[in-house]
Write a sequence for this structure.
């Protein structure tokens, strides 16, 4: 393989001037607009007034077998909300633990229309059995991530991410809309249920080796933006949540080894000659993170991030929720800025050159997701 046309060092040198300029501009802007920070924050984050948590308020969540979904289900349960936790496998460790906690577990495969309708019927029957109960929110959390360049991924892997992340969210939302429109009388006043959509920082700035995943999340963001405007006239809020990075705790990479083997098996002889040992080194680097993901799947737990749970409380209970809540590490702002600059200044920079750099050779513990 030939040398990369642009090294990381040359990229850094070329991008230094605009990056420094942007940093200075941000610092000056922050100083000038500091007096207006509280006002801007209140407008962006929505109303601080909230509905009080109540067992009469039901919340449906998807993807609760592990990770964020499991953590949100346990947190909502601790608030006193009635939780319907959708799980792919009712026998999974996460599902069994939720049952032990007293959470209502519902089998829910977002890619299967019959499974989705079955979950709707379970919730609908519960609402009929308890006249006080109403559906306050649907949280679309279920997601699949396959880490690897687009040229490596199989059609099945691409379709899986599209069907779970994008089409699955649409499928579930469409099925539950009638129950959400029925509204709720719990709390200080009437209101309708809301749709909460978990997106990703990859929807804000796509990253190499996450091209398919980023496409599904960007599509999800665009759909949620339009859905919010469509549903506003009917009184159904649509809220997006960007939760940030907790890959090693979410279990989302638990199946990475299987995905890597599938990519390897599908490669043609031309692929193998062209890429060389780069895919192998790429997947070896991710083996450590994916092993932590398997542990998170086997022993799901509440995510140790109080600010994250507070943000979801705002999305679920605010009388006038913001259109989008973002909770990300500060380094993501730097990632997004660099990714916006680099493609335009160095078109030759692709994940192949970046991932062959010292970042991967030294096995640095950098988490992109």
């Amino acid at each position: 393989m030939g040398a990369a046309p642009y090294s990381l060092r040359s990229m850094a040198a070329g991008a230094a001037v605009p990056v420094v300029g942007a940093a200075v501009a941000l610092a000056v802007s922050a100083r000038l607009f500091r007096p207006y920070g509280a006002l801007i924050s209140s407008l962006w984050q929505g109303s601080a007034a909230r509905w009080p948590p109540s067992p009469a308020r039901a919340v449906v969540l998807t993807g609760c077998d592990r990770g964020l979904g499991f953590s949100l289900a346990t947190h909502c349960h601790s608030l006193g909300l009635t939780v319907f936790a959708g799980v792919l496998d009712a026998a999974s460790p996460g599902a069994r633990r939720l049952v032990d906690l007293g959470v209502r577990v519902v089998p829910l495969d977002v890619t299967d229309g019959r499974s989705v309708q079955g979950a709707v019927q379970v919730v609908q029957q519960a609402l009929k059995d308890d006249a006080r109960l109403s559906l306050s929110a649907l949280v679309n959390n279920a997601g699949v991530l396959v880490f690897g360049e687009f040229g490596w991924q199989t059609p099945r892997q691409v379709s899986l991410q599209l069907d779970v992340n994008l089409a699955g969210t649409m499928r579930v939302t469409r099925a539950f809309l009638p129950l959400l429109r029925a509204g709720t009388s719990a709390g200080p006043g009437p209101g309708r249920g809301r749709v909460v959509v978990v997106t990703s920082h990859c929807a804000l700035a796509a990253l190499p080796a996450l091209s398919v995943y980023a496409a599904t999340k960007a599509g999800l963001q665009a759909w949620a933006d339009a859905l919010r405007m469509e549903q506003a006239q009917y009184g159904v809020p649509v809220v997006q949540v960007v939760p940030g990075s907790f890959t090693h705790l979410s279990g989302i990479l638990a199946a990475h080894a299987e995905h890597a083997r599938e990519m390897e098996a599908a490669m043609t002889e031309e692929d193998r000659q062209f890429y060389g040992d780069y895919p192998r080194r790429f997947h070896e680097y991710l083996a450590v993170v994916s092993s932590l993901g398997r542990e998170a799947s086997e022993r799901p737990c509440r995510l140790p991030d109080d600010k994250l749970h507070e943000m979801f409380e705002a999305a679920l209970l605010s009388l006038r929720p913001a259109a989008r809540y973002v909770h990300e590490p500060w380094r993501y702002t730097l990632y997004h800025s660099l990714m916006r600059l680099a493609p335009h200044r160095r078109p030759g920079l692709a994940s192949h050159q970046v991932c062959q750099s010292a970042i991967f050779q030294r096995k640095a513990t950098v988490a992109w997701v």
Remarks:
- The longest strand covers residues 134-140.
- The first helix runs from residue 8 to 32.
